## 1
Amino acid sequence: MKTTTMWVIAIALVAATGCSETETEVIDSGGDDQVALGISPNLKVEAGTRSATKSVVSGDLITYANYTTEAPGLGVLITNKAANGWYTPDGTDYTGHHVWYMGDERGANWISIQTKGATFADTNESPYYLTKDIGRVYAYYPYDVTITNTLTNVNAEADLKIPVTVLSSGEINAQRNNAKKYWNAGAWASTARTDLVNLSLPTEKDYLYFGADGGRYVNNGRADGFSPVTPEDEPNNLDTDNPGYKINLDMKHAMAMVSFRVYDGGRLSGNNVNFTKFTIKNHIGGTNLFKTGNGKMSLTDGTITETVATAELSRTITNYVLMRQVEAGEGQYAFIQTGTTTGGINGKTVSKSVSAIVYPVNFGENEIDLEITLQEGDNTPVVYPVTLTGNQWEPNNNYIYTLSAGRNKLTVMDVSVEAWADNEQDEIPL
């Protein structure tokens, strides 16, 4: 009876502090055994509000609050050594070049599959076996079975592109409080890390690609003329002769994120005011750099191309009451400013943020406009326009704009940048 050796893929999400990697133990094998493609990633899919289906990745594990509806899995494509054709596997379980990987509800025990069950326990493994021939690995998230409808042939690495989309409209439910501070029993308290989630459109997708900083080459570890690769050997995916069956996948964000918090600087109203919509669009007379709609993502380096739609991006928002700066009488929606900008009580630390995934863009002055819509009770909504200062919205970064609303204008008070989690921008007064 044959022993199956798993090709281990350790996946790490690149963050500001670097990346983490995990590997599963590989079962020992004999010289003639088949070597199968396996996976043990270390990523986390945050579900936005956690109760809605979401594909925004942040953290270091892939877990799912609802396995049936929220678990897309990872897609892996394997080419030949020269990347001018697809890899030919050894075996009959998986005979193509597009492999679907799925982990359990806790983000462990990843296996290659062809059909997903209602639960991980109901999902059967379908191994992808490697040969002694060298192949190249390309990976992306989230898995899409239709990728091969457009990516049928590969003549060069430049052909490896998949469709991506930035949604131009949708609704964000901001019921969950993701502010860094919240009012609790008559005092300000720090928000639990589990509540510091992205409040964004449930149906938008966060696209990841395999950066291959440590190489892409794999085989079964038994190339002619070379010593067999053993389970104890470390991955060497830069080796073009006999790299072996282990590979670390450093998954990186291809998209950028922008986030907005809005608060009442104390001069807007004595009543509750709701933040009901934000719109990002190209400035009239600019060069239409901001794009939405469909594009293509390179599986080699994550570069986004073939974007053509210059339509605005808008998000309607529910359940977002502005925090109001006051001199006295703090409460659920009112605060007295104290302490430092980052660690004290102020509009930045007590206000929720709502987010959208966008295509990376480098823009100058008078290129991109932001519109914030506020509404007091049943009064007519008021739209506050702001032309953003030139910036570069880069992949893997979240650009957080804090805006202060006044009676006559909206002011950007802060703009910050962090690696996907939070990147503060200078505040903007409205």
Note: The first strand starts at residue 5 and ends at 7.
## 2
Amino acid sequence: MVGPRPSAYKIGGQQGIAPPPHNSRLTLHLSRRSDPLTTRINMPRARSKAATLGGSSDETETAFYEALQRGDIELLMSCWADDDEIVCVHPGGPRLLGPAAIRAAFEAMFSHGTVRARPAQVHRVVALSSAVHSVVEQVEVMLPDGLHQAVVMATNVYHKTPEGWRMVAHHASPGVAPDAQVDVLAQRPVLH
């Protein structure tokens, strides 16, 4: 017996078959690899929609920060590579592996409002099929006593894929304001 014919879709000019509908009641299973600081959420996932991001890592990064500021989870996830090994670390948080864990973390962040982060300084190292951006982010944080400015140091890694440049890693850490950084370095003679 032949079941109903899957619907066709077109992404990026390529024809494909839509995945079968999935159960809307998904159970999330948190699994830990050998590292207790790594979170992976195993759940079925639909193929990510290819974003129209253009042809550079800069354009993908612009879309990523725009998605943060708008709280747009679909745009944000379209900036990521469609790969189970993508990784994200938020300041003080665990290492998140895979699209499901990353999506869940950003959805939790967006449930409290948008993320007002903007790249203030970007240092780029770009090769043929990969790019590393070291970013100083200016972040506005709402605390009980009002709005505060924070500095976050982020490293964003991009790979050139058939769909365009996509993020494969985002690692963010609390930072020091760039002008204060010079004073800190002058006081510490050891680099690492």
Note: Residues 1-33, 43-51 have pLDDT under 50 and may be disordered.
## 3
Amino acid sequence: MARPLLVLLLLLGGCRAAPANRVLPQRSPGEAYVFDFDHGVPVIREGRRTLLRDERAPFRKDPEVYWLWDAGGRLWIYVAPENAVYYYERTPEGWRRRVWTGERSTRPERDLLPPPGLYPPCPTSK
């Protein structure tokens, strides 16, 4: 009796959904854009049309890279080994990658902040 229960627990444990900051392809809030990696290179598409293929990005797909869209339609990337945060935003000239420094202004209500859930959970001690 214990063996079927063990098999069931192993199957259920392996079927957990990926956290939101690791889902690929990932749709923007309005679902107009899709983020993915193509051979490790970050890509943003609209339908079948590639709007951005960032060959010069300082990161590639990796288990320690996390991504998430914010409510404003910006795509945020957190690179854990470097503790670096980037974001892509749509401009009249197309999508642009920016470095987020975390600096605060005198008007905090205007400060740009990463979306909740971008960072991975802190490791727990056993």
Note: Residues 2-13 form the longest helix (12 residues).
## 4
Amino acid sequence: MTERTDGSIGEYPAGDLGDRPGVPVPYKVPPTTPYYGPVAPRTNTLAIVALVTGFCCSIAAVITGHIAIGQIRRTGEAGKGMAIAGLVLGYVSIGFTALLLVTLVFFTAAMGAFVTAVAGATSSVTSSESATSSEEATGQTGAAYFDDGFLMVGTGVTVVDLYIDPMCPYCGQFDIANGDTLAALVDDGTITLRLHSLTFLDQASQGTEYSTRASAALTCEAAINPESTLDYLAALFANQPAEGTTGLSDDELTALSGGSGSIADCVTGEQYHAWSQQNTDDALTGPIPGAELSSIQGTPTVLIDGSQYSGPIDDPQALTDAILGVTG
């Protein structure tokens, strides 16, 4: 390399190197800093965020994606593809979520309508069955006087009302002691016996509603085989279950019948359940027609021409004397 007289470095003027005009100086001053080629633009941070959140948070992906694209346009940063990808993922996720919510709303509405329809149909059937039972339990059938709320045997002048519950142990004791006496007074025309079989001890039969089932079965017997009404009552108490048990089954209640007509369909069809329960409500709330009592407070309760018998429940002679008006 040749240095000129003025201290600069460059081409020699023509003639300096002989007869070769304009020969370049073979060396130049190297650059002061290294050269690494063109620098790649920086990737926009929000574009990366948009892409990542597109997989987990659609709303955040859409928001950051739009912001990232705006910044990229202004600054020339890289990452536009990632921002667009995040937007696409975000919008697809939002659309899918919206579709899922709409489907869920329609499904819930449809299920609600279906449940309402089923409940309405069930209620309609139940109401229809109850109405049918209520319509059937009117007037008189055999020894059952449905409008008056009792079973009646005998035609005597003295009226004896007997309130019992098939699961009541004291009622069982009363019937065992006095059942034959009352039957004899019915047969000889001394008394008219009106039976009120109550159901308030349903709670003592482990959910089987034994008192209702037994009272209804007694009503079935009175309606179908009126001549066997007192025999069936005696059979109920002779086979009385203990309180706190499930009681007799419907088949066992049917088997107690000694009449010529079958009570099976009447018993299993629960024909007089509602009637028996209504009689119980009427007795417990009152008033009691033609009686000195305002309501029935317990069982057994015996009314003789409306007056309450207060004698011993296991002394048939005391009961007979009270009925005949004789002081023992």
Note: Residues 80-136 form the longest helix (57 residues).
